[in-house]
Amino acid sequence: MGDVVGLHDEALRMLPELAGLRHALHRVPELALDLPKTQALVLEALEGLGLEVTRGVGLSSVVAVLRGARPGPAVLLRGDMDALPVTELTGEPFSSEHEGLMHACGHDLHVAGLVGAARLLAARRDEIAGSVVFMFQPGEEGDGGAQIMIREGVLDAAGDRVVAAYGVHVSSGMLPHGVVSGRPGTAMAAPDSVRVTVQGAGGHGSAPHRALDPVPVAAQIVLALQAMVTRRFDVFDPVVVTVGAIHAGTANNIIPATATLEITVRTFSEETWTAAPQRLREVCEHVAAAHGMTADVAYERGYPVTRNDPHELERTARVTRALLGDAAWVEMPQPLAGGEDFSYVLQEVPGSFVFVSALPPDADPATAPYNHSPQARFDDASLATSASLLAALALDRLAEG
Question: What pLDDT band is residue 268 in, cutting at 50, 70 and 90?
């Protein structure tokens, strides 16, 4: 693996340049799959590195391939690029210039960190036996950009299928300053979406017996679903069901014909992911039927469970300790309930996806605004960690041949 401490020192020396790129990206956040300004900044940042660069067809992606001096396998490093529909309230001097949009999840740091890794590895081309694929991906926040890039051939961009893939995600809170955290197996949940429409019969609020009121039935479904997740599923393989919205009615004296529930379901294993739709459907339909009504359940699958290959997670822990010291690695006690579309990559090839603390040094991890908050702030110094960790993982894996 070579001198990984020196690798991190080199990343620290390029930190002002990486932070400048991050700030430029932060000023022009873009949504979903069409990120022309972001793509242009990435292309400019990669100039002069001697990479084979291509752009996506169905999205504003960038794929760059570094060829080592000697033949060998290929590995993939990924950074997602899209922002969120959030109005920024950080007060940062480089705050968003696009009204109502913000890099509130730190993807601007992911991009700048991946550019840093590309620069570190390009400077070591003569030491590399194999290739590195740099995956700059739009559309992580719900649009499945990783799946589109896989269909467009990112895993085979070097000519042969990559043998491993690595990604990081920064955190503005929860994690102590300066640490990297991950766990073998399930790291993040599979997030599904459900829309339940209870069909009743409208009427006058003074005569509910002459109508079929869907509102109390919808309320019973909310409670019944919470009983379901504690009684139909193993407590050690949990399911999270959250009803985020209820829509019904137009006035206090009108019984509506329908009531609608908007639900998110989070599962952490293949078994619960498979069982959840049918069990949720049974609860909704049967509660409605008990009151002479029907419930239409529209269940939409989201991203798969994000799973770390145990061997690659162990590699990531070892490399982190060598790079930053033993105290820098903290194993996650349990998965996060958020979803991540790097899961599609990890379904295809072994790899790891870990979290890098970008907590500002003056902040408390327990109270700092977390990712997706309009007040979320991220420490630029974490760019050196992300860049050197990704580069070190690529070098370590390619050294195996």
Answer: very high
